[in-house]
Amino acid sequence: MMDQDPLSNPEQLAIKLIDEALQPFLLNAAKWRPQQLVGTAGSFDTWRSFLMRENKDESPFYRFERTELWKAIQYIQKLSLKERLKEASIPEYRIRTIEPAGYWMKRMDELFKFEHIYQSDFALMEGLIAELLEDI
Fold first, then answer.
1. Percent of the chain whose pLDDT exceeds 70
2. d(CA 67, CA 23)
């Protein structure tokens, strides 16, 4: 593992590759103008965990306050790799991906200005199935 601060060359490359890989998504999103973003795994879970360090929220859905989310992303982006390893809310397997994800999330919000940003413990289909099972 490299120990560069705070954005290493592989992380910069990841941002570039994400931009290129998601061009079809960006074109469709520009056409349909989504108003809400629901993150169902990965960095969204980490950002929520980071924000919930002191105020535990056990609900399966969480609505991010925009300023709170950006403060968390900026704080995490300023951490070195060693500091991210020590941060209990960041799983070890995510210490290298959380930073490019933060840049991408910021870019997405700048482009689409989402009204609401959520984290869900369920993928959309899982959430639907969970709701249906509760009614049975």
1. 85
2. 27
